[in-house]
Design brief:
- Pfam families: NmrA.
- This is NmrA family NAD(P)-binding protein.
- It comes from Flammeovirga kamogawensis.
- This protein is α/β, with parallel strands linked by helices.
- It has a domain of about 150 residues: NAD(P)-binding Rossmann-like Domain (Rossmann fold, 3-Layer(aba) Sandwich), CATH 3.40.50.720.
- It is about 40% helix and about 15% strand.
- It is built from twelve helices and twelve strands.
- The strands form three sheets. The chain has a seven-stranded parallel β-sheet with strand order 3-2-1-4-5-6-10, with helices on both faces.
- α1 packs across α6, α3 packs parallel to α4 and α7 packs across α11.
- The longest helix is centred in the C-terminal third of the chain and has 16 residues.
- The termini are far apart.
- Bound molecules: NADP nicotinamide-adenine-dinucleotide phosphate (NAP).
């Protein structure tokens, strides 16, 4: 059997971005893929190791003989600084050679988000790294907002007129896989990735309405937004942070600069929002009679 080039540990394999990275990596037989998480994903037949980022005792066994780590930042990390200091220390002890971290694109209010802390710990760690910083995933429509769109025909979101840059996580997954394959040109750098469109939620709902032939409305009520976040399992502290960040962003007049980093690497244009909605038309279509109000 041909010797595998690298042992790559994929954290968050079931996350939006993790699934896209796994999709591309599964087609490339030159590396040994190891999934690290709290639960094995049933779709893929790769080696699985238990890894709970909230439990430092799971780090060493998950990182044994790993060359490259693809790291995501799960929302519910209890102590960001301690967790990632320890995780990076164990990476070094276990002779991990490189780390690729999926962060988020910088904005004026990035200091609110914990990703910054993780980025600076990675930079100080002495490990080879690449930080990939994408904008907002289109897949939030088919995950986070899916029930709202399908069952309630409305999206609860205050500050709906602020422009967001939308990117297809599949495009991001493609770039991350390229870097996992060969980091040489991206070593110790940060790459921001954007899609081609800055659109507010009103425009997105108009597109959904046109494609799905059902009215998808905006519900700008803050109480309803908080209720929907609670239903999605966010804790009070996560909700408070999200609200501060969300309002700060929506009052900010700065707009996201679009870059062509994806096009330079993939040699094609990023997915358009319309194309994404068409690709997911059956996921977004209503499965039961809609209720007209969330309240
Ligand atoms: N969503 C966006 O629009 C967006 C935009 C830009 C960048 N990003 C970045 O992309 C990355 C992934 O985001 P996402 O939205 O794709 O994530 P997600 O769908 O919320 O998934 C989070 C992942 O983390 C895992 N996880 C949760 N708690 C864990 C723990 N204690 N230990 C180990 N694994 C744990 C979850 O798996 P289990 O629960 O099964 O363990 C899941 O696979 C993050 O770094 C995020 O900052 C996201």
């Amino acid at each position: 059997m041909q010797k595998k080039e690298k042992n790559i540990l994929i954290t968050g394999a079931k996350s939006i971005i993790g699934q896209e990275v796994m999709r591309y990596l599964s087609r490339d037989y030159s590396h040994q893929i190891i999934e690290g998480g709290r639960q094995e994903s049933s779709a893929e037949k790769h080696e699985y190791r238990y890894l709970d980022l909230n439990d430092v005792n799971t780090f060493s066994s998950a990182l044994k003989n790993i060359d490259t780590v693809f790291l995501v930042f799960p929302r519910a990390i209890k102590s960001v600084k301690n967790t990632f200091i320890t995780f990076l220390d164990v990476c070094k002890k276990e002779h991990v050679k490189e780390i690729i971290f999926c962060s988020i694109k910088k904005s004026n209010f990035s200091f609110f988000v914990p990703h910054n802390k993780v980025e600076s710990l990675i930079k100080k760690s002495g490990l080879k790294y690449t930080i990939v910083a994408p904008s907002y995933f289109m897949q939030n429509l088919t995950t986070f907002f899916l029930d709202d769109i399908k069952s309630n025909q409305c999206v609860a979101i205050p500050g709906y007129s602020s422009k967001i840059n939308w990117i297809d996580a599949r495009n991001v997954g493609y770039v991350i896989t390229k870097i996992l394959h060969d980091m040489t040109n991206y070593e110790n750098s940060t790459m921001e990735l954007t899609g081609d469109e800055n659109k507010d939620f009103m425009e997105v709902c108009a597109k959904l309405t046109a494609v799905l032939s059902r009215d998808i409305e905006i519900q700008p009520n803050t109480k309803l937004f908080i209720k929907s976040l609670k239903e999605k399992g966010l804790t009070s502290s996560e909700i408070n942070k999200l609200l501060i960040f969300h309002f700060a962003e929506s009052f900010s007049k700065s707009k996201t600069n679009i870059n062509n980093n994806y096009e330079k690497i993939a040699n094609k244009k990023p997915t358009r929002l319309h194309e994404f909605i068409m690709r997911h038309i059956s996921d977004l279509s209503c499965s039961k009679s809609p209720q007209l109000t969330l309240i």
